[in-house]
Design brief:
- This protein is an alpha/beta fold and 307 residues long.
- It has eleven helices and ten strands.
- An eight-stranded parallel β-sheet has the order 1-10-7-6-5-4-3-2. Strands 8-9 form a two-stranded antiparallel ribbon.
Length: 307
Amino acid sequence: MQSYSRRRFLATSALLPAAATVLTTGPASAADATAKPITGTLKGSLFKSLKIGMVNEGKTMAEKFAVAKAAGFDGIELDAPGFDVNEVRDAIQTTGLPVEGTVCSSHWKVRHSDPDPKVRAEALETLRKALEATHLVGGHSVLLVVGHGKDGTEQEVWERSVSNIKQAIPLASRLGVAIAIENVWNQFCYDHEGGADQSAEKFVRYVDEFSSPWVGMHFDIGNHWKYGNTGDWIRALGKRIIKLDIKGFSRKENKFTAIDEGDIDYPDVVKALVEIGYHGWCAAEVKGGDQAELTSIAAAMNKVFEL
């Protein structure tokens, strides 16, 4: 437990400098530039993770963690709440693979934008439990879908979700676990029927509405390629981006694809991430499989990010 606690302290401490700059939109400071010059590469700056549901080999947490590590991943994301803390701690200690974060387990169905105050109260309680569970296993972010456009007008969804999520910020700051908003197809902060010329302006304003370094963006590289230029969205969001997800998408075929398929402009994605000084995690979010398949997915991430 002493070794585990030290790892958790280091993982949490590592987040603090990044979290403190989430709301900074300008270039990195001179000190940052001195510590890590912009070299045009993400090598040593981007670490590969994946969702626990992608690991289809192994029965116990320890076995699944071992498979993910052997496939070439540096960390893993769990669904929270819903896992056995002691089992996960044992898996971390056995394999050395860290839990870098979690995904809120019920955010699609129990939403912070729901018109019913009772549902919003349940969403808040679930988020708080997710933050606590994540902290107990050394993770430092909870991915959150904030709501859905079908719950009302954009203004109503905006106000309800911001008001609800803000109530979890004191806990997030105390635990050192960030609330990471994901850009998803939830018909909010973009035009779902619009074209590929949309900007990230509304997401920028939405994140800034919280005025907290403990709320940022878990930016999914593939999710909005259909609606805008991914590199430009990364540049606009800047230091608001806490973590990344990755999947492929084909505008030509209008569908999600494997990471290294489709037509996402990955060279510009890499360029944009270097420009904003990104240093952190990227989780694969595609169909998983056994160790061989996961090894191929890790290799695809190496390929598109030029690692």
